[in-house]
Design a protein that fits this description.
four-stranded antiparallel β-sheet, alpha+beta, three-stranded antiparallel β-sheet
């Protein structure tokens, strides 16, 4: 299998992709949970603690300022066409700034979320929009990722212990 596509990401698409990376989603969920706990503490005790002020402020700052600023910085570097090429063994990404070829077995997870494929490795996450591929190619990609990447581990799942 050899699938390739060339595309250009808009600043909005880049911001959406960055907001939905696994690390950002986990951080947003954690901050939201701590914010709810802080608000429940305010309702129970009548006085806000440190969490009552800090966590909602950090959540708002990250979502409203941090991600758009990161997208603006990244958009300057990622301007121009991207070329993604996926074979049975490799993932190749070429931009106007850089190019990289990574073996698929270096990734530990591939997820489709809100129109993007996210390939997660121990050192970071790579993403590309699924809409640049045809429906048949998207099906091939899903099958390739399902068969070539290790299965997802379930936390605390030990069937024989």
């Amino acid at each position: 299998m050899d699938i390739s596509a060339t595309f250009t990401l808009s600043r909005r698409q880049l911001r959406t992709a960055l907001r939905n990376t696994p690390v950002m989603r986990k951080m947003t969920i954690a901050l939201a949970l701590v914010s709810v706990i802080g608000l429940l503490k305010v309702l129970a005790e009548g006085k806000p603690g440190t969490f009552g002020y800090v966590c909602p402020a950090v959540l708002v700052l990250v979502q409203a300022l941090g991600i758009p600023m990161a997208a603006r910085r990244a958009a300057a570097q990622m301007r121009g066409p991207w070329t993604v090429r996926i074979t049975d063994t490799d993932y190749h990404l070429q931009t106007t700034v850089n190019q990289a070829t990574v073996r698929l077995d270096a990734y530990r997870d591939a997820r489709f979320h809100r129109g993007f494929w996210y390939l997660t490795s121990p050192t970071g996450t790579s993403f590309f929009p699924a809409a640049v591929f045809t429906a048949d190619e998207q099906t091939q990609l899903a099958q390739l990722f399902a068969h070539s990447l290790p299965p997802r581990k379930r936390a605390r799942y030990r069937p024989y212990s």
